[in-house]
Specification:
9 strands; binds adenine; elongated; Alpha/beta knot; Trp Operon Repressor, Chain A; 7 helices; alpha/beta
Length: 241
């Protein structure tokens, strides 16, 4: 199979080096499940100063990313048939697991545009199919958000995780939070592993885990829990019909 293509447009390409070599995601790149290409708009400037930003029209503090180097970097990317271009910005749609699933299934290429500094020329927006935020906070650039997306998408690709770590439980985006996990020792600093997990009763363990999962979601993330409840009742209705 052709590797899933991740093309990143960024002024700090070095940031992405660690992705290639480290852990589960690094292995997905070395085994050609995915491919990572990084493009620096500065390499696409034509002036002697290799200028990528300029003062804002209308005045104001800070600098604004110029459109030409970004468009030139974008134009140099070889486009696949099922491509998607994402712009990293706190103004975008908040990222969720459903987005990651969709990009991993319906596309074979993600182009990730990272903003930097105080902002970017509004015309850069026209390159993007979607604008994505990783949360209601502001970072200095889109690099960390892009790395978040790459990690989350590559993790979902066929072959990245072993059967052991499979993602069967997450086949829908409105998932419940994980139940608590324990490993040896059974007693540690006055804290005991729940007896049921040591009982060998697989039915009871599954039930306990499901309960824990539901309770945890209900107390920590009522928003997720309500979505899960709705989904449950609608799938129950379908069964009843
Ligand atoms: N760039 C700066 N902050 C960001 C955020 N929270 N999400 C996406 N891109 C960003």
């Amino acid at each position: 199979m052709e590797p899933y293509c991740l093309d990143v447009v960024t002024l700090v390409p070095q940031v992405f080096d660690s992705l290639r070599s480290l852990g589960v995601i690094g292995r997905a790149f070395s085994s050609r499940i995915a491919e990572l290409n990084v493009y620096n708009p500065r390499d696409f400037t034509k002036d002697t100063y290799r200028k990528v930003d300029d003062e804002p029209y209308g005045g104001g503090v800070g600098m604004v990313l110029k459109p030409e180097p970004i468009f030139a970097a974008f134009d140099s990317i070889s486009i696949k048939s099922r491509t998607r271009t994402l712009l990293m910005t706190p103004q975008g749609k908040p990222l969720d697991q459903g987005d990651l699933l969709r990009w991993s299934k319906e596309h074979d290429q993600l182009i990730l545009l990272c903003g930097q500094y105080e902002g970017f020329d509004e015309r850069i927006r026209t390159l993007a199919d979607e604008e994505v935020s990783i949360g209601d906070f502001v970072l200095t650039g889109g690099e960390l958000p892009a790395m978040v997306i790459i990690n989350g998408v590559v993790r979902l690709l066929q072959g990245t995780l072993g059967a052991q770590e499979s993602i069967l439980d997450e086949s829908h985006s409105e998932f419940l939070l994980e139940h608590p996990q324990y490993t040896r020792p059974a007693f540690f600093r006055g804290m005991e592993v729940p007896e049921i997990l040591r009982s060998g009763d697989h039915g009871a363990i599954a039930q306990w885990r499901a309960e824990q999962s539901k309770n945890r979601t209900k107390t920590r993330r009522l928003d997720l829990y309500s979505r899960w409840l709705e989904k449950e009742s609608s799938s129950q209705e379908k069964k009843d019909k």
